[in-house]
Amino acid sequence: MNKISDLKNGKGYFELKLNQMELKSIRTIVNSHYLENLKENYPLKKHIFKKNKIQNYHKISKYIDHKKNWPMRARTLPKKKAHKFFKFNFIKELKKIFGNFKISDEYNIGHEEIYWRIVRPKQKTDVGPLHCDKWFWDLNKDFTPKGKLRVKCWISLWCKGLNGLRVYPKSQLKKFNYSYEKRDGEKKPVFDLKQKKKIKKLNCKPGTIIIFNDSLLHGGSVNNSSQTRVSIEFTMFVNKKALN
Predict the structure, then answer these.
(1) What is the DSSP pairing of strand 200-201 with strand 165-167?
(2) How many Å is the maximal CA-CA distance in the chain?
(3) What is the model's pTM?
(4) Is the pLDDT confidence value at 208 over 90?
(5) How far is CA 113 from its chain centroid?
(6) Which helix (H) or strand (E) holds 17?
(7) Of 203, 118, 129, 202, which Cα lies nearest the Cα of 166?
């Protein structure tokens, strides 16, 4: 089964791999953005942050207000850093699969929205509930361009074994019931866990790229390792014809 078939009618996702040079480059971009944020908001503690890169964030998170400091906008790469992504080989590989695509700007920041996540060890509150990305678009403003479909790209930067993404294979072919609640100024889906069945934890060693269907049920795993998990992601608008 080819990648497009996997995405549509198969397990709902497929995997690619960053080469070591690209992994190192993206890690540098994300760590730089992370440190810039901390130094700006906590200038008197910058000597502490300098000693601990993002994968060791759990060692210094007690010094800051974690929830307040890391809304999605704070984790979205600025334009100059985001545009460095377009030079990477994995983007060229994605274009071979889907053709030309655009990256969404869901919060109207003015450029492609590429954002990273941090999940501390043993912190259940750092992980969101199971969901389908489609639900967020259905509940809030959907500005998907005409003739386009949404496909998600999730990349592991620092992660040990099965402490990354969990998915429900083939769930893009199913229908689930969900409600919603309003948080942070938008409607967010609430999934009834009684519907949860065969959830699979993926081996998300650093450099793993997961491309998945907008309707695939998925979520982050609780991080049971001793290192902060770091990933980065974005939503692609691809031509409908590419998925036929």
Answers:
(1) antiparallel
(2) 55
(3) 0.95
(4) yes
(5) 11
(6) strand 13-17
(7) 202
Residue in the block written with tokens 């759990």: 58
Task: Indicate if the alpha-carbon torsion angle 180, 183, 187, 191 is positive or negative.
Answer: negative
- Please report, rounded to a whole number, the percentage of residues in the chain having pLDDT higher than 70: 98
Collapsing DSSP to helix, strand or coil, 40 comes out as helix
Distance CA 105, CA 131 (A): 20
CA distance 163 to 11: 20
CA distances from 27 to 22, 54, 55, 99, 155 (A): 8, 9, 10, 26, 11
CATH of domain 3-243: 2.60.120.620
CA angle, 209 then 67 then 74, to 5°: 55
So where are the chain's domains?
Answer: 3-243
Give 154-198 pLDDT, tens digit per residue.
999 999 989 999 999 999 999 998 999 998 788 999 887 665 668
pLDDT at 1 over 60: no
Residues 6 or more apart in contact with residue 124 via CB below 8 angstroms: 222
